Amino acid sequence: MSWTMPSLHSQVALLGNMESRNQSTVTEFIFTGLPRLQDGSLLYFFPLLFIYTFIIIGNLLIFSAVRLSTHLHNPMYNFICIFSFLEIWYTTSTIPKMLSNLISEKKAISMMGCFLQMYFFHSLGNSGGILLTTTAIDRYVAICNPLRYQMIMTPRLCTQLSADSCIFGFLILLPEIIFCDLVPVLSLACTDTSMILIEDVIHAVTIIITFLIIALSYVRIVTVILRIPSSEGRQKAFSTSAGHLMVFLIFFGSVSLMYLHFSDTYPPVLDTAIALMFTVLAPFFNPIIYSLRNKDMNNVIKKLFCFQKVLNKSGS
């Protein structure tokens, strides 16, 4: 539902008893921004289906490569593995519903389905953002304090950080779920929504603090890398951090555009494009960045394919 936020409207059903004659109950929300079948919705359906399939397969490959290869059993790849796992469910919370609505005559979602989608979408997004922050700190320790890296980033601490990122991402929204923070849903509310300002401020402050932590970490990382005397050492250090930096820029760039604009005058087309950027395009590029730009990951994935071919030949 997130990519049609500017054009979301509700359908209400009146209660039947006399005492509640002047009241109404929201039963579902209608997506008015989605094209109908006769208007060429299939032109959107198949590209979106391809992107979703690519996201799932790409992230499953990364997850499997890290789990199956002992060569990749270190904190950095563990965080990448967990992030890929989160990305699978992050996109699954929204894209399948988009796909079903594109080929359905009735483009709707129930009120409970709407709230559940918002909760899981934002919780998984928060967990991913916290995990990216943890990854930036891990790279900071590895490059800026390499002699103490193994002592600091122990397997126990790595597991704890991964678990805490996921748990905190889900818990942070529990007090907010009653407010339904999406602007189109709030615009349908018949009660006072002024308290949502507190939630908006919390979101903004959280995004800004997280952005600053990661940005300052990478500024320090780049400074240290530039001081490495050998060009080979600099290249190796840059290669391990460039992928994380690109994912960070895509993820937080799109999220910042969506949630840090302090004006409601965004055109619907622009709002939809920004929402599509962080719900669809950002997860689409992540597997490409982590596989194609990472030699170790690339080699492991190739070995997995070669091993599968050998198994197929021996089985036949």
Protein architecture, described:
The chain has a single domain, classed as Rhopdopsin 7-helix transmembrane proteins, CATH 1.20.1070.10. The model is unreliable at 1-21 and 175-181 (pLDDT under 50). The N and C termini lie far apart (46 Å). The chain has a 3-stranded antiparallel sheet with strand order 1-2-3. 69% of the residues lie in helices and 6% in strands. Helix 2 (75-92) runs antiparallel to helix 4, helix 2 (75-92) runs parallel beside helix 6 (155-171) and helix 9 (231-259) packs antiparallel against helix 10. It is globular and about 65 Å long. The chain contains 11 helices and 3 strands; from the N terminus they run ββαααβαααααααα. 30% of the residues are buried. The chain is mainly alpha-helical and 316 residues long.
Can you tag this structure with a few keywords?
3-stranded antiparallel sheet, mainly alpha, globular, Olfactory receptor, olfactory receptor activity, transmembrane helix, 11 helices, 316 residues, Olfactory_GPCR1, Rhopdopsin 7-helix transmembrane proteins
SSE diagram, text form:
Blueprint: E1 8-14, E2 24-31, H1 42-68, H2 75-92, H3 95-102, E3 108-110, H4 111-144, H5 149-152, H6 155-171, H7 183-187, H8 196-226, H9 231-259, H10 268-292, H11 295-315
Antiparallel strand pairs: 1-2, 2-3
Helix pairs in contact: 1-2, 1-3, 1-10, 1-11, 2-4, 2-6, 2-10, 4-6, 4-8, 4-9, 8-9, 9-10
Keywords: Cell membrane, Disulfide bond, G-protein coupled receptor, Glycoprotein, Membrane, Olfaction, Receptor, Sensory transduction, Transducer, Transmembrane, Transmembrane helix
Main location: membrane
InterPro entries: GPCR_Rhodpsn, GPCR_Rhodpsn_7TM, Olfact_rcpt, Olfactory_GPCR1
